[in-house]
Amino acid sequence: MATKSKTTAKRKRAPAKRKTPKKAAPRTRGVLPAECRLENLPADAAAVAERIEGEGGYVIGSYCEPLGRNPLLLAALPIDQVEPTPFQRDLSDAHYKKLSGVIDRTGLFLDPVIAITAPKQGFWTPNGRHRLEAMRRLGAKSIIALVVPKREIAWQILALNTEKAHNLRERALEVIRIYKGLIDEDPRRPENDFAFYLEEAALVTLGLCYERKGNFAGGAYHPILRRLEEFSSETLQASLKVHQKYADQLFELDEKVMSVIEKLKERGLVSPYLRAFVVARINPLRWIKDEPPPLPEVLKTMKERLAKFNVDKVNQQDLAKVGGAPDTEA
After folding, report:
1. What is the spatial distance between Cα 122 and Cα 106, in angstroms, rounded to a whole number?
2. Across the beta sheet with 113-117, what order do the strands follow?
3. Among 60, 107, 162, 181, which is most buried by a count of CB atoms within 10 Å?
């Protein structure tokens, strides 16, 4: 995995932010209603239809969606054959229980889940986990799904989900789950092929940290990782090993930071931003305006500065000036 080189003459620009598409002229894209009719299934869609039937489901119909004219299958699937993708955010108990109550009162299931074929058998839903669990809670035997033959849609849906959590911990955990799912699909593809789905290279490293320790203080280190980590041209498998090495180094650093924090507390210094204060004091990037050193060198410098950190020179006024992520951030 690549880190930024000292020899780069000019500072690299930050990745461009996703732009909201401009409003198109009316009726200039896609197909007319009659053109959504699908006379014959393409080979990939036909294979999925055969699998649906082979696993106890029933293909209700097929059509081309009206924007990109991609084939879709409307199917009734055995509910026990459908699972959420293993790399999406955690289930909200409150949400799916409330949803089950609404469905039960109306007596109607009107919003099909999105589904793709799972790698070996069954189906995954990248969009519909709470509807799936709500129907299970109600004792349903089957669930209606829009089955997409294009498996890559699972990662696209998660990357584009406007309702996904913005909490750093949840974002990072979602990214590392997507990452491991991608490795299961094709470990030889280069990491930077999936930059769109993964959002930030830093989130991969932080995801590994949060998997190891759910309350890891990622907010204190995220700005450093975000500035220094980039997606690599190496394979996903090889790049994951580098992210793991960085995660291990972060844990080692944070243990030393915690030792300094305990000494500050022993002196009676209290603040929800103690970690942010310590990390800011040892962060060499604060004074580097041009191309920064690579991440391993920065982490090494931070450890060296921690070893020389003089807690006796810190007072409550110093702490009052600091901001950033509080120590309790998850």
Report:
1. 29
2. 58-64, 71-78, 142-147, 113-117, 123-127, 82-84
3. 181
Closest to 155 (Cα-Cα) out of 127, 133, 132, 128: 127
Residue whose token pair is 């593809």: 189
Q: What is the pLDDT of residues 292-303, one digit of tens each?
A: 999 999 999 999
State which amino acid sits at residue 279.
V
Among 293, 289, 212, smallest CA distance to 250 is for 212
CATH numbers and ranges of domains, the chain: 35-155 (3.90.1530.10), 165-320 (no CATH)
Tell me, what DSSP letter sits at residue 164?
S
pTM for this structure? 0.64
- pLDDT over 70, % of the chain: 86
Instruction: Residue 144: count other Cβ atoms within 10 Å of its Cβ.
Output: 18
Contact present, 59 and 37 (Cβ < 8 Å): no
DSSP string, 149-161: S-TTHHHHHHHH-
- Mean pLDDT, to the nearest integer, of 279-297? 90
What tens digit of pLDDT does each residue of 174-197 get? 889 889 888 887 788 899 998 877
Q: What is the dihedral of CA 261, 208, 205, 168, to 10 degrees?
A: -70
pLDDT tier at 325, thresholds 50, 70, 90: low
